[in-house]
């Protein structure tokens, strides 16, 4: 079996972009111009906002920890945001006209958030027991994977944006799984460039449905690949129509990367018979399709739900390394690490082909010495060299100023943060985060990006555009919500 080594003679490019520069530097102030990475303060005055919604039927009760969860999100043509999530509602059930009681339910909901970060509308559906969801590629409908028998099988439903069932999908809006291919153990839901629906489950591997909601019998065997030998954590369509499938694995043999052809069989020209094994304890968080059928991975060394040695690696379609960064964080750095990279990390290709990374970073908060979590951003050129014009410094940005700090998107169910670019060229993140109340809130953050042509000029050689201050470590100044 071919094993992927994080370093060695195979590496064509080893790049120096240590995250310690971003976190363990002195307290800084931003230069006069607004950089690409600057929070856009036209959003709620700070560049980010948390929004909580409780259905009026729920009264004054405290929302549970599944309220305001996020399964998918998108930016609309008017720069508003749409969120597919969950909402707590209260409903009445009756066994007879004279015997009724009230029950609490968590239902799928579709929210619209205005460009300025205020809540516009929320539409609830009748869908419960949701385990995954997505907007259709054109954004006009939503797909929901729900439990039928928990942990045994599932259904896929398609809804219109007004919350009504789309009866043109499958059987009156519902795909029922007669062959139990859609086990709701470790599920996932994705769509490819043709609108076909990819559903991952354990132990059944990857299944594919046509956009109409019919199982695609041309894929794999009767519509599914069969067991992939592990839990599928991520799927991405390659530029040549193949699929990269990431399998979780924190112990031997470690996480594994598979490449399936568009017909649902292993591509034996990739790795060893279609599979590449990563080192033990490697957590692979995100994937992004690269040119000529390649793929970009964000990986790290997982230790007790925290990640170290996070880095980007570009593989070609044969499984060889094309380019790779040095670890973005060394284990020796005190009081700073990443939350497990699967918890909301994001990779996005920008309109100009550059690659935007954002991850949740932790550091010690002053006075209390408790741990605060914030969002770290990085921008890389297609060859994985850092774009120093991103923040006017080193290509990495961790907001550490009062009022501008963007806190972590700690979305643990279903580990989803949407990162994209809006019609005005601004960088947008939509997801969920948990604050002191202990339950999720819909959360939006927005960076300036190329809005109004405010991309800064590159700094002079060997000169930072930031003014360094006290010489004290930046982690002393981290804030906590």
From TrEMBL:
Chain positions covered by the region annotation Disordered: 452-472
Domain of life: Bacteria
Keywords assigned: Signal
SUPFAM superfamilies xrefs: Calcium-dependent phosphotriesterase
Signal peptide: 1-32
Protein name: Delta-60 repeat domain protein
Organism: Nitrincola nitratireducens
């Amino acid at each position: 079996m071919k094993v992927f080594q994080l370093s060695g003679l195979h590496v064509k490019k080893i790049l120096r972009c240590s995250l310690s520069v971003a976190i363990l530097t002195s307290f800084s102030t931003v230069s006069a111009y607004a950089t690409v990475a600057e929070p856009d303060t036209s959003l709620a005055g700070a560049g980010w906002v948390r929004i909580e919604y409780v259905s009026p039927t729920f009264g004054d009760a405290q929302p549970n920890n599944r309220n305001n969860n996020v399964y998918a999100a998108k930016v609309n043509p008017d720069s508003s945001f749409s969120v597919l999530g969950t909402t707590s509602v209260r409903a009445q059930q009756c066994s007879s006209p004279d015997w009724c009681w009230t029950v609490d339910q968590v239902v799928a909901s579709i929210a619209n958030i205005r460009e300025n970060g205020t809540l516009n509308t929320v539409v609830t559906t009748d869908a419960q027991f949701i385990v995954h969801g997505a907007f259709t590629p054109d954004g006009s409908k939503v797909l929901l994977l729900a439990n039928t028998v928990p942990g045994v099988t599932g259904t896929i439903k398609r809804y219109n944006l007004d919350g009504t069932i789309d009866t043109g999908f499958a059987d009156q809006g519902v795909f029922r799984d007669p062959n139990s291919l859609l086990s709701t153990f470790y599920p996932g839901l994705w769509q490819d460039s043709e609108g076909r629906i990819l559903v991952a489950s354990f132990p059944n591997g990857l299944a594919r449905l046509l956009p109409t909601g019919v199982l695609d019998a041309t894929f794999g065997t009767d519509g599914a690949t069969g067991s992939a030998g592990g839990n599928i954590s991520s799927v991405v369509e390659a530029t040549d129509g193949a699929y990269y499938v990431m399998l979780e694995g924190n112990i031997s043999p470690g996480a594994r990367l598979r490449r399936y052809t568009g017909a649902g069989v292993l591509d034996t020209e990739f790795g060893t018979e279609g599979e590449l094994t990563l080192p033990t304890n490697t957590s692979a968080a995100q994937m992004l399709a690269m040119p000529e059928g390649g793929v970009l991975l964000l990986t790290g060394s997982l230790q007790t739900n925290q990640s170290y040695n996070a880095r980007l690696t570009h593989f070609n379609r044969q499984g060889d390394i094309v380019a790779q960064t040095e670890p973005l964080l060394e284990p020796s750095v005190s009081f700073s690490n990443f939350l497990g990279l699967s918890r909301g990390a994001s990779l996005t290709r920008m309109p100009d082909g550059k690659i935007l990374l954002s991850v949740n970073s932790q550091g010690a908060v002053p006075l209390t010495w408790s741990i605060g979590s914030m969002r770290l951003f990085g921008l890389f050129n297609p060859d994985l060299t850092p774009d120093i014009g991103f923040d006017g410094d080193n290509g990495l940005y961790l907001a550490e100023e009062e009022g501008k700090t963007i806190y972590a998107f700690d979305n643990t169910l279903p580990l989803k943060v949407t990162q994209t670019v809006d019609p005005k060229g601004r960088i947008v993140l939509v997801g969920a985060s948990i604050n002191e109340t202990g339950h999720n809130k819909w959360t939006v953050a927005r960076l300036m990006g190329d809005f109004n042509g405010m991309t800064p000029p590159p700094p002079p050689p060997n000169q930072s555009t930031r003014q360094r201050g006290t010489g004290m470590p930046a982690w002393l100044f981290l804030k906590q919500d």
